[in-house]
Structure formats: C-alpha cells, structure tokens
Amino acid sequence: MPKAKADQQEVDTYEQNKSDFDSFAAIIRKYVGIKELTPAIVNEFIKKIIVHAPEKVNGKRVQKVDIVFNFVGELNFLSDTQPKRQGA
C-alpha cells in the first residue's frame, strides 16, 4: 500500500474516532445528573446486548455478556448467572 494511501487511512480513522467520541460525549452531557435509567436513555447508549449460553467454569455457572455501545464499540463482561441472596 502506498504511503499516501496509508496516511489517508490513518487520518480517516482518526476523524471517525473523533466524531464518535464527540457524539458519545454529547450524549453523556445530555444525561448528567439523571436520577432514573429509562429505556430511552439505555437505547441512546447501547446499540445491542448479546447474552451467551451459560457454561460451567471451575464448578461455577458463568455467562458471557457482550455489550456493544453506540460510538464506543463492544465491552465484554463475565458474570455469575445465579442470583446473589442478600446476607448469603
């Protein structure tokens, strides 16, 4: 790939990332100090949530959850699927 084309790709990627960050920052500013998380707010922040089938790891039931945020991308979480009892 010629250097000029590679440099242009880097500039394009930087500009897209900056645009995504600016859009995400605008949403965050819009909801500073919210008291309640509503479906409308969640829909502005989250593009999709993928919940994978549970599996056993080291004798514990765990489940992988992928959260794809608008303008930010995917974050992965691994959490217990069994409910925690208070005081247990």
Tell me about this structure.
With about 90 residues, the chain is of the alpha+beta class. The chain has one domain. It contains 2 helices and 4 strands. The protein has helices at about 5-30, 40-45; strands spanning about 45-50, 55, 60-70, 75-80. Strands 1, 2, 3 and 4 form a 4-stranded antiparallel sheet that branches. A hairpin with a 3-residue loop joins strand 3 and strand 4. The longest helix is centred in the first third of the chain and has 28 residues, at about 5-30. It is flat and about 55 Å long. It starts with a helix and ends in an 8-residue tail after the last strand.
Descriptive key words:
single chain; 88 residues; alpha+beta; 4-stranded antiparallel sheet; 2 helices; 4 strands; flat
